[in-house]
Amino acid sequence: MADQDTAQIRQQSDEDVRALEPIDHVRLRPGMYVGGVDKKALHHLVYEVVDNSVDEALAGRCDRITVTLADDNVVSVQDNGGGIPVGMNKDKGKSTVEVVMTVIGAGGKFGSGAYKVSGGLHGVGVSAVNALSEQMRTNVFRDGYLWEQSFRRGRPTEELKKIRKLTPDEHTGTLQTFRPDFTIMDQNDFDFEWLAQRFREMTFVTRRVAITLRDERVRPIPRELTFYFEGGLYSYVRYLNRNRRPLHDPVHIERDVEFTPEGKPAYSIGVEVAFQYNDSANVVEMAFANTINTPDGGTHLTGLRSAITGVINRYARKAGILKEKDPNFSGADTLEGITTIVSIKHPGPSFESQTKVKLINPEVQGAVSQVVTEAFNEYLEDNPREARRIVDKCMTSMRAREAARKARDLVRSGPSLLESTTLPGKLADCSQKGEGAEIYIVEGDSAGGSAKQGRDRHFQAILPLRGKILNTERARMDKVLDSNEIKALISTLGTGIAEDFSVENLRYGRVIIMTDADVDGSHIRTLLLTFFFRHMQAIIAEGHLYIAQPPIYLLKSGKKMEYVYPEAGMSEPDILARALKKYDQPDKVGVQRYKGLGEMNPDQLWETTMDPATRTLLQVTIEDAAEADRVFDMLMGSSVPPRRRFIQTHAKSVRNLDV
């Protein structure tokens, strides 16, 4: 095969082999620079530009950033930093502004003078945004003048020009305005909530910097939020735990560690950590490197975890809580119920990719571990009451883990469980397995019977569940595995759970939740989503989880029949009213409300909800794990007041709340 490929290459002419310009390579392979062309990548364009302004803040030259969303997906980002230098770049023979905006790999962050730490160290960010923008305009407030240069798809359409003198009350800074190129990016709109969550994170991690997000698409009064926090990670942990019952005040650590690599100059690594235990069984971990969220963690998170586990084990033995014969707490024991954030500042961070999802600097692990070990030791010694609460929680976690292990041993019996008469519903399996197969998790035996008769037995499996499953937000693993409904679900999916979980063993390409279109159906769907988010999150992350959309009405007019489906943001009466408007005599149209899937015969269920050619499936995704964690904790957790406030805020009519 290699010889054949070589022969083909030799036969190519000079015209067949082309060396792409860097800008063209960005446009041809956007996934290498912004992670793809989808909605997530679209928002990454904004993050790249804002990261440059945050770098100005880290350098002490900026304390205000404004992001504005305008019509036609135009975005502007303005800061009051020093402004991009406007002089000529001797190496390139063009203005520094043009070099920064058009040359991949150019930037002011490679030397040691302008930026001690920054997020945009690759020199790729803003030039990649420019390459993926239909139009982009750079305005620089610097050296007493306002300067401007415009670009189209990464290339300048004019030279840098001087517009006017700055007025005495104008600050220096940079204003970037761009519209993405939707011939490359998928057609999506910028989401205010996505951006707000990201900027909230940034201002927690970058103290004393205000970020304003303004949405001028909202009329007549634009929507605007400003984020500013003095307390750093201490405040962030309190914010994340606001719906939980904490066991102590947040532990907050902030120190610098000097590092001297062999044969190279010494440098300093800034480490900031905050964590707090609560009474839940959930773990919330967040990690940042030079203010950039690294969702896949990395060496900074590894150092934090190992330090916490080591300190607690040493303290528990010293205090006599762990006896000589007792095993050490595992990492799972010491992290259960923790909300923790680690943020490092490094002059030369290394990431797995341009999208910066994981930090890989090996020296960071030791720096974070050293700082946390020293400070957490001091905290436990100085606060014995809080220390006892933390260790007691770890002890409870260890006992629950052992109980869960015994329960898992039963679940591991695999296929024999599926044949057990104690199962709440019988699995009607399909002949196909793997990517092309799908399983419907159906509410109740009645709907399960219709689904079994209406399905395509070749690739569609049916698992009926009786009633409402356990609320896994409030239950430890041993209680979760004591539920027959959940054991049936785990065994059917084939993935295992907890330490045994492996998404590679999933027996179906699609896992589809299909519940009735009523309050009970919504509750069951939420309980199932809670279970998948807490215990099988990889199934969601890898795109396997879906929600079926059965119709809510059947309209009959003479021989004509029409199904009406739910729509996001619309009430059922409004949906029905709009559907009836299409008829000449709406008062003579027969209306049937489907409250349960069992009300449809098998043919109707296939036609409306299960036939791949006509059905609608909603794919479940996690765009922001921290926000999803907060929502599940609020809606399904043990604390009632936050849930009551949420319902009172969002319900159109609230009567006799019993939450």
Global outline = globular
CATH topology of the largest domain: Heat Shock Protein 90
Query: What is the CATH first-level class name of the largest domain?
Result: Alpha Beta
- Please state the CA-atom Rg, rounded to the nearest Å: 28 Å
Q: Poorly predicted ranges (pLDDT <50, ≥5 residues)?
A: 1-17, 109-113, 414-425, 652-659
Architecture overview:
A hairpin with a 2-residue loop joins strand 21 and strand 22 (560-564). The chain folds into 4 domains: 24-227, Histidine kinase-like ATPase, C-terminal domain (Heat Shock Protein 90, 2-Layer Sandwich), CATH 3.30.565.10; 232-408, Ribosomal Protein S5, domain 2 (2-Layer Sandwich); 416-550, Rossmann fold (3-Layer(aba) Sandwich), CATH 3.40.50.670; 623-659, no CATH class. The strands form 5 sheets. Strands 1, 2, 5, 6, 7, 8, 9, 10 and 11 form a 9-stranded mixed sheet that branches. It has a 5-stranded mixed sheet with strand order 12-13-16-14-15, sandwiched between helices. Helix content is 37%, strand content 21%. Helix 4 (39-58) packs parallel to helix 7 (192-205). The chain contains 22 helices and 24 strands. With 659 residues, it is an alpha+beta fold. It starts with a helix and ends in a 9-residue tail after the last helix.
